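The record is kept unedited without comment:

——
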Amino acid sequence: MTSQTGAKPNAKVVVVMPAYNAAKTLRITYDAIPKDNVDQVILVDDGSSDDTLKIAKELKLEVFVHARNFGYGGNQKTCYTEALKAGADIVVMLHPDYQYDPTLLPSLVAPIKAGQADVVLGSRFLQGDVMRQGMPWWKFLGNRFLTWVENRTLGLNLAEYHTGYRAFSRAVLEEVPFLLNSDKFVFDQEMLVQAVHLGFSIVEVPVPTRYFAEASSASFRASVRYGLSIVGLLGLYLLHRWAIVEQKQFQCFPARYKRAE
C-alpha cells in the first residue's frame, strides 16, 4: 500500500518532543537532531518538576507548557495540535530522553517525502538484538506477544508497534481523531489502529535504541497495565469493525486544523 497523499519532496518537517522531567537528556537529544532536515522543533512540557523548561528556553525551542501533568497521550495531543497549527507537512515524534537516535530522523521522513508511506515507525526489532541493547526481558516478551496479536487483528506484518519514534504525514493527523484518544500510554496504539482503520499506509525503518538510567522506562507493573489496555483497545476495535458496538474514536471526522490555501 502506498501513501494516500503522494510525494512531498519540499515538505515542512516539524519535530515534536513530548517532555516530562527530561532535563538530563534534553540538551544532548536536541543537539543530535540534524537541523538541515528539520524546519521547526516544538517541545511540550507536561508539568515537569525539574529544569526541563529552563533548558528548553536556553535552547530557544518553541515551548508549550501544561500547568499540570496530563499524561503521555495528553502531551502528544498538544504536540500534534500545535504542529498542525504551525503548518507541518510531516511531524516526527522524538522523545527527549535520548533513547532513540535523533540522527536517524531523515530515514523516518524519507518514505513520507517520497510518497511511499503515511506513517513511518522506527523499529527496534529491525536493528540488532534488542535484549543485548538493554531491553528488559518482560518488555521483550510483552512486545513480541502484543505485536503478534496486533498483526493478527489488523492484518499487517509489522516488526513492532511499540516504538516511540514515529513520523506522520499531515493527512494522518488531520483525519485521525486523536483528540478522542486516551491521555495514557495506550495513545500510541490508538493512533496506529485508527490510521490502519482509515486506510493509511505504514512502513518501518530500523533504529537502534539505548537503555540507561536517565532514559524513560516503565516498570513491570506499568508494562502489564499497558499490555492489558492494548488488548482492550483491540477488542473495542473489533466490535466497531464488526458493527457490533460503534466506537467514536474509529470514525473519520473532518479535519479540524486545515491549512489555509
